[in-house]
Design goal:
This protein is mainly alpha-helical. The chain is built from 22 helices and 4 strands. The strands form 2 sheets. The protein has a two-stranded antiparallel sheet with strand order 1-2. A two-stranded antiparallel sheet has the order 3-4. It is a multi-pass membrane protein.
């Protein structure tokens, strides 16, 4: 690493030198420059990606030691209060600050013919210009979610005290482990020459094109469904706040229209302050609902959509005199015979740790990706402590009558409205974040790859972004409006997508990364002077050697972890489908009509 740091400071990357790699001064370059490669070039090997990744990490470490990354050296304060972050500065190969030329950011570098005139330094500086987010911004971006805290009480009501606490603890710790696994893969594959822009890029570089397509499709499904879920939850909150006087379809549609405007924010660093704001709003909602729940009865009129109804309708059904059963709790599963409802409840808890799907995108926009772990572990600890206390507290006071989201289940109208209004603002920010990443995934993997669309820093790219946002949010509204069972919808998305991105895929990716990295021997690897990769062996022999070399026990752990996550996902999908079948056995209201599903008065 010391040698790499020296190269970053003094000599730069040999591959970037004008004279290196030429045949006897004849001007014949022995390699293809990074900017001349296809966006996802199958000929680029792991060894080449890894070589340039080490270069990038050495440069970042050098800049950090010399105090050049001012936004990353403010200590703990930068985690609580994210800085604005530089948008026009980047460090060149020699570690000096340089202003990104506007003529470079105005070029459509996604067209190979135009990249031919771009120098190596301009190419890498264009990559640096996109990296402005800080660890503080990452902390708030990860904790900017509306369904995590307010779905957890529902999860406890369907699993009971003991299983709920145990499962939430295990899932929380393993979510942090998954974040570390993804971080290791990113640090070993991302560089300024070949930046990793999304989850699918990691899959492509470690497993191939099929994995990239699979990951991108699943990620796109999750992101647009997450936006759809929030549109519907906000629609329900607005209909309840209006005392059901406003048409339910309009209540949902207004949030889709709001997304047209808030979704115009393109960079994650600009989301930092919004995310900061959303986290404190969520805490305020939690305090309000906790205080009100301790001094008022649950919202009995909405018992039909409560956790108890999904476990056993008798738990929340009023008797002949119209008296509802008292609030009850369970040390274990409330109804062991209804295992599916417990799994569905668990899927609500899984939503709290669903941010891992975005971790790669977050790292790709960080000035210093090394600091991602600081923001990530801080966010996971915050999520675990605050959400756990909130979930247990609400379960203690409202028991089987808990709603999903929980702020819909308090009975005093004034406080109910206050919680709903605050939740709507926070949820809209979260939806804008999901939509931001969702559009970027589609833009980078469809518009750029197949239609040579310009980068989002280009004027044409910005205009395309403006046009795509309304289309994306309109599709999300249609999806959410067509699926009326909110909890069932959340459970299905959790099992199908969130478990994969948070628990199944990280060990799957890290297994390949660890085997490929450990298989490297002295004298092997990428030669920047010739562009050639030297390997002593290939095939199964090399794979087995990489598996058993070094920390082989981590490879065994990755296999067990991945298989266990896949089994859990299978159970979750089964339980969600069974629940949806049960719900759809009766006619359901959706967001295409005026009657709210929360209004049981008629």
């Amino acid at each position: 690493m010391a040698q790499l740091a020296t190269m970053a400071l003094d000599g730069g990357d040999p591959r970037l030198n004008d004279k290196e790699g030429e045949f006897a001064g004849q001007g014949m370059v022995a390699y293809t420059r990074p900017q001349m490669r296809a966006l996802h070039d199958k000929s680029i090997t792991f060894e080449e990606y890894h070589y340039f990744a080490l270069q990038a990490r050495a440069e970042e470490d050098s800049n950090h030691r010399n105090g050049r990354n001012v936004t990353e050296t403010r200590g703990f304060l930068s985690t609580l209060i994210p800085g604005k972050g530089p948008s026009s500065l980047a460090s060149n190969e020699k570690g000096h600050e340089s202003t990104i030329p506007t003529d470079v950011t105005d070029l459509n570098l996604n067209v190979p013919g135009r990249r031919a005139s771009v120098t190596d330094e301009e190419w890498t500086n264009a990559s640096r210009a996109c990296r402005t987010a800080t660890a503080g911004a990452i902390f708030f971006l990860i904790t900017t979610d509306i369904l995590g805290p307010f779905g957890l009480p529902y999860a406890f009501a369907t699993t009971g005290w003991g299983p709920g606490v145990a499962l939430y603890t295990v899932f929380g710790f393993m979510a942090g482990v998954s974040g570390w696994l993804l971080w290791e893969c990113f640090m070993g594959l991302d560089s300024y020459q070949y930046p990793v822009k999304g989850y699918g890029d990691l899959a492509f570089r470690l497993w191939g094109q099929w994995a990239r397509y699979s990951f991108n499709i699943l990620q796109s499904i999750q992101l647009i469904c997450s936006v759809a879920v929030i549109i519907i939850s906000n629609g329900e909150a607005l209909s309840e706040a209006s005392q059901f006087k406003l048409c339910y379809a309009v209540c949902c549609l207004v949030w889709a229209l709001a997304g047209f405007f808030l979704g115009q924010i393109r960079t994650l660093q600009k989301f930092g302050w919004l995310a900061n704001f959303a986290v404190w709003i969520n805490l305020m909602i939690m305090f309000i609902t906790m205080g009100v729940a301790a001094h008022s009865a649950p919202l009995y009129s909405a018992a039909g959509s409560s956790a108890g109804y999904s476990v056993n309708p008798d738990l929340v059904t009023a008797n002949a005199a119209g008296v509802f059963p008292p609030v009850s709790h369970s040390a274990g599963l409330p109804d062991p015979s209804n295992f599916g409802s417990a799994i569905n409840g668990l899927m609500q808890a899984v939503y709290a740790y669903g941010g891992a799907m975005l971790f790669t995108e977050f790292m790709s926009e960080m000035k210093r990706p090394y600091d991602f772990l600081k923001g990530m572990w801080g966010a996971q600890f915050f999520i675990y402590i605050c959400y756990m206390l909130y979930g247990l507290y609400m379960y203690a006071y409202q028991g089987q009558y808990l709603q999903n989201p929980s702020y819909l289940g308090i009975s005093p109208y004034n406080w109910q409205t206050a919680g709903n209004v605050l939740a709507m603002v926070s949820a809209l920010i979260a939806a804008a974040l999901y939509g931001n990443i969702g559009v970027k995934v589609l833009y980078n993997n469809v518009a750029v790859e197949f239609f040579r669309a310009p980068p989002l820093t280009h004027k044409s790219g910005k205009l395309l972004w403006v046009a795509l946002i309304p289309i994306y949010w309109s599709i999300a509204f249609i999806i959410g409006a067509a699926i009326p069972d909110f909890s069932g919808f959340v459970s299905f998305i959790s099992a199908l997508c969130i478990i994969q991105f948070t628990y199944s895929f990280p060990p799957f990716l890290h297994l390949a990364f660890n085997v490929k990295k450990n298989a490297l021997r002295g004298g092997e690897g990428f030669d920047p002077a010739t562009g050639q990769v030297t390997l002593q062996d290939t095939g199964v022999k090399r794979m087995m050697r990489g598996f058993m070399a070094g920390n082989w026990y981590l490879n065994v752990f990755n296999i067990i972890y991945c298989l266990g996550a896949l089994a859990t996902a299978g159970l979750g999908i089964w339980a969600a489908v069974e629940n949806l079948i049960l719900i759809y056995a009766e006619p359901q209201l959706n967001a295409f009509g005026c009657h709210s599903p929360l209004d049981v008065s008629s």
